[in-house]
Amino acid sequence: MAQYTSASTALAVIRLRNPPVNALSLPVLQALEDGLKRADADPSVKAIMICGENGKFSAGADIQGFSLPKTRGISLGHFVSLIERCEKPVVAAIEGVALGGGLEVALGCHYRVAHVKARMGLPEVTIGLLPGGEGTQRLPRLIGVPAALDIITTGRHIPATEALKLGLVDEVVEENTIEAAIRLANKVIGQPLEPRRLSLRPVPKLPNMEAFLSEALVKLKKQARRYLAPELCFQAVRAATELPFADGVRKERELFNVLLTSGQAQALQYAFFAERAVQKWTTPHGSSWQNASPQPIHKAAVIGLGTMGRGIVTSLVKASIPVVALEQNLEYLNTGRKAVMLLLEREAMKMEQGAQTLDFHNPARLQFTVDFDALRDVDLVIEAVFENMPLKKEIFQKLSRICKPAAFLCTNTSALNIDEIASATSRPQQVVGTHFFSPAHIMRLLEIIYGHHTSPTAIATAVQLGKVLKKVGVVVGNCFGFAGNRMMFPYVEQAVFLLEEGSRPEAVDQVLEDFGFKIGPFRMSDLAGLDVAWRSRKGRGLAGDSVPPGTPARQRHGRRYSPLPDLLCENGRFGQKTGKGWYQYEKAGGRTAKPDPWLHNVLTQYRDTHHIKTRFIDQEEILERCLFSLINEGFDILAEGIASGPEHLDVIYIHGYGWPKHRGGPMFYASTVGLPRVLAKLQRYSEAHPDVPALRPSTFLKKLVAVGNPPLKEWMSYLSRPSNKL
Ligand SMILES: CCC/C=C/C(=O)SCCNC(=O)CCNC(=O)[C@H](O)C(C)(C)COP(=O)([O-])OP(=O)([O-])OC[C@H]1O[C@@H](n2cnc3c(N)ncnc32)[C@H](O)[C@@H]1OP(=O)([O-])[O-]
């Protein structure tokens, strides 16, 4: 809705009303049109102000509405033009947010006043669209092509102060925005409106427009990786530089419709809502976000200043949480301290107000120690030592003696059993898994793992911590590898099996990078370090001396096994850190992967030794075996209640594993491929590789196909156990 009132006889107020963010649904837009007509028809009204209810202008078009047939064909541009054509001055009073269609409505207004804390932007590109309310044509006319192109193709939200510098708003105020807008409206009554109508303005010329646009396009294409929206946003802005306004608008509509029906927009909009849905967590024991309250964290501690610990400390400092950083001895402490300081200096440089905001030189905010006694008064500890169960248990035993009874004890682990770690403490209800992703101060995912005894308060506190750290927290159950890594194991396993059968690392990586992953599985292993998984395999008796004599080289516990990664590690090839892994690098620590003839020779010899007949493996098989085995594991995870819905797995993959967001996440992707096809392919691959359990179709997947391939949002209702639907 939009409410029509009067601020005075001469000033009509149209207030957009659609909680929580005043999304521009059809009724809101129709009420806006009615308000404009009423103001126009009333001779006593001399100016109009548009604002939003509850301190928010508008977050734009109703994203849910894009999937509703009745809203198709309704053009936001029609309403924006109505505002602009109004014969009485229209002033936008921008509080909170003016995003997407919200900002386009403001661009139709003749004047814009913003509160200093307001944020503006055209984030359509992030949901697979372009600003289809004539924003691609008006914004370049107002602030010039370079700034408009940046805002439209990145979707970033800009603060009011930046908007003022760019000329996007006419005034920024620290106090009452509505009153300031009323003052401005009264002041401009009677002034000519033609110069304020953006559609009538020319696009400001650049001396080197063509060169600028060509360079921008090359840059966009490089980053986009089959993600359509940025390039189509670019084309719409280019149309503004080449065509009259009306033709530019036609082009914008044409491009908008391409995106709307591309499939990518649906995937990205699904991802938008999935990210919000996972915040409403539940567990199979009935605890949930609704019945648990987080405890405040005034002070935290991090144990272990290796790669993960350093990133976690940095995240906490950035979130203004005082931290005690602890290492086992002074040598490690000094190395860790230097590394943390370097990270913080870099982060401070990236931040607007610089180092002072972070305040990391103040020992009250960041303290380095080797003394466990310094942990007595912290509210939460994050243990981030390496993956060694006896070591973690020893630390947790110590923590339960030293920390205050109410302190939460978190373990940063990527696979280890949370219950076993919790068993070392006298307060297992306070223990929770917090699986950060490297680099921990940058990656957005936080996998939050509850054990058998973890209290709802501990889960809620970890979720809240994730929010404060600006991460997406996803709550999952306890099993080896939790949700993310458990799905990753079969994916990587298939990639290695494909090498045994005839493929090469660069071929497998290429297929997955073409699909949209930032890096393929072999480049990823080289980056992460092959020795990490090797140590874990040795610990589990799969590699090294603990393998019983007489065990076939390519079999473990009756299943197919590939000793290829072990072979690389035995040759000191740990990946980038040693300058050699699945690829060769220019030096130890180098970043540029080059195919390695040594590896190709080893593969040939390996196949000969093990009598493997080499065959040509096409791209379809590479893609399907890697992705479908990962998805198959996802169905088992859902059936076991480890994750409470497919959205959880998708959010984990998008934010933790570089899954291309425009494909919506693995489970969403499976739904777009069609579950019958995923099942049929898995059946075929499983028949060809009967000793690979990961290719055996999940019972839950078979059930969903048997009941007729229901839409993703209905999947969980087909589980026989009480479901965890959000
Ligand atoms: C047609 C021509 C072209 C125009 C295109 C557009 O305008 S495209 C649009 C371009 N605009 C965008 O892309 C902006 C997208 N929105 C945002 O970036 C953020 O939501 C925010 C910054 C507005 C608020 O962040 P925050 O952390 O304070 O809060 P939060 O994020 O948790 O959201 C609160 C609730 O609001 C809901 N909801 C939000 N927006 C929309 C919407 N547009 N629609 C519907 N619903 C929306 C959200 O789902 C959540 O619901 P829940 O779970 O409570 O039921």
Detailed description of the structure:
Strands 12-11-10-13-14-15-16-17 form an eight-stranded mixed sheet, with helices on both faces. The chain has a six-stranded mixed sheet with strand order 1-2-3-4-6-9, with helices on both faces. The chain folds into four domains: 2-260, 2-enoyl-CoA Hydratase, Chain A, domain 1; 300-476, NAD(P)-binding Rossmann-like Domain (Rossmann fold, 3-Layer(aba) Sandwich), CATH 3.40.50.720; 503-609, Orthogonal Bundle (N-(1-d-carboxylethyl)-l-norvaline Dehydrogenase, domain 2); 619-718, N-(1-d-carboxylethyl)-l-norvaline Dehydrogenase, domain 2 (Orthogonal Bundle). Helix content is 46%, strand content 11%. The mean pLDDT is 94. The two termini are 28 Å apart. The protein is of the alpha/beta class. Helix 4 packs across helix 5, helix 11 packs across helix 25 (646-656) and helix 12 (307-318) packs across helix 13 (330-350). The site of (2E)-Hexenoyl-CoA (TC6) has 23 residues, from strand 5 and helix 11. Pathway: Lipid metabolism; fatty acid beta-oxidation. Its main location: other.
